[in-house]
Every structure is written in structure tokens, then in C-alpha cells.
Amino acid sequence: MGTENIFKLTIGNESLHYKSNVNGVRIVNFTTSKNLIVKRDMFPHPNLHKYNLTCPDGKTRIHIDHILIDRRWQSSLLDVRSFRGVDCDTDHSLVFAKVRECSAVSKQTAQHFDGERFNLTKLNELEVRKENLFEISNRFVASENLNDSEDINRAWENIQENIQTSVKVGLGLTNWKQHKPWFDEECLDFLDQRKQANIQWLQDPSQSNEDNLNNVRYYVSRHCRNKKKEHPKAKNEALDTKILKNCI
């Protein structure tokens, strides 16, 4: 998209290009029909922070990957720019947007989440469910003799504490799911190599640095793919070994 005055209210005048092409005109028509606005081209930034795609010749820079937002909420978008140094393993640079959300939040919903979750799946077992009900009943025995003059808020806090303590003792806490168990220190080392190669290519976009970056990307992708395939195989082998030991 360019900086034509006829499109100024929709796309702004901070684009890297001067004239819109066919795809740019399509975006303008789409945003106009949906009451949207292209907010990225309305923030003044150096040209270094505008383009997010470099052609294979290393000289041609393209300003694409825009962010569209409803005109009603356009003031919530504070800034949009591109970051070239972020390692995304792609020829496109990361587009960063700073958003401000204004909403009314009550004190209860604004409380900090402590990260504890009860293991509610145990309630499917009949014995555990009975023991949990029995534990809660015992804790509420002391609450039956409350005076009428006692503060109702304090009484409700006692009820909450009794229930949470009983459930925590009877059910326990659930373990947070560990994502990607195959991802180890060796994978981190490969990612660091890719990051260094990417930084070297950004500082000096020569053909040798580009070839080095492509080779590092290939080896990183192959290594992570092999690690992901080997993990279920190792898990099945360990399970088979455990079954054989039990049979013996």
C-alpha cells in the first residue's frame, strides 16, 4: 500500500511505498466495506522498522503484513512496527503491536492467580468423593455454633477456607502439563546457533551468510523433527520393558 491522499483516512501516510498495487487497493476496499482501518501505516517510524520482508537480492525491501482494526477501537492500538532481530525461522520479520485495553474489572477478578488447581478428576472415584464429603462435613461442625452477631463476611471467608483446605487435602493439586518433553538442552543449542546465524545475516546480508543461515535452518528443523519422532519410540520401549519385568 502506498501514500495516496485518497486513501489517507484508511491507510495513513507512513507507508514505505509511494504507490499502491492491486493487492493494496483490495485491502483498502475490504477495510472500507467493513469499517476497518489499517493502523500500521499511521505510526511514524524509520524505514528500518517499516519493512518486514527482504527479497533474495538483499536490496529490495517490502512493507507487508498489516494489522487491521475496527475504527471504533483504533485508539486502543498504540504502536505497530516490525522487529528484524527476532528469530522466527522465516523470511518475514515479526510485526509487533502495542495494545491498550480499557475495561472495568472487579477486585475479585483482578486478584492474582496463585497457580494452584485442584485435581478434580479424582472426584470420579466413588471412595474419594465420599472421603472428601466426610472431610468437608467434619470441618463444618465447628461452624454450626456461630453467633448471630458475627460478621457475615467473616463467616463466608471461613466457609471458603474450610472448603479449599478440605479439597486440597482430599484431592491434592493437579500437575501442570509439561509441553514438548522431547525438547532438551541440545535443541536449545541448535536454536542458539540459528539465532546467531540470523543476526549475522541481518548485519551483513551477503550470499555466504544467507547460505549459512539456510543450512543452519535445515539442520535445526531436521534435528527437532527427529527428536520429536524418537520420543514416542523411547516411551514405548520403556513401557515394553516394564511389562516384561512384571510378567517375569
Briefly summarize what is shown.
By secondary structure, the protein is mostly helical. The protein has helices at residues 8-11, 22-33, 126-139, 152-170, 185-203, 207-247, and strands at 36-38, 53-54, 61-62, 68-70, 77-83, 94-99.
Helix content: 40-55%
Which consecutive residue ranges, at least 5 long each, have pLDDT under 50? Answer: 109-113
Distance between the termini: 72 Å
Oligomer: single chain
Mean pLDDT: 79
Arrangement of strands in the largest sheet: 1-4
Task: Report the β-strand fraction as a percent range.
Answer: 5-15%
Order of helices and strands: HHEEEEEEHHHH
Q: What composes the largest sheet?
A: 2 strands, antiparallel
Question: What is the CA-atom radius of gyration, in angstroms?
Answer: 29 Å
- Can you tell me the overall shape? flat
| Overall number of strands | 6
Name the structural class. mainly alpha
> How many domain units?
3
Protein topology:
Blueprint: H1 8-11, H2 22-33, E1 36-38, E2 53-54, E3 61-62, E4 68-70, E5 77-83, E6 94-99, H3 126-139, H4 152-170, H5 185-203, H6 207-247
Helix pairs in contact: 3-4, 5-6
Word description of this protein:
It contains 6 helices and 6 strands; from the N terminus they run ααββββββαααα. The termini are far apart. It is mostly helical and 248 residues long. Helices cover 44% and strands 9% of the residues. It has 3 domains: 95 residues, no CATH class; 51 residues, no CATH class; 63 residues.
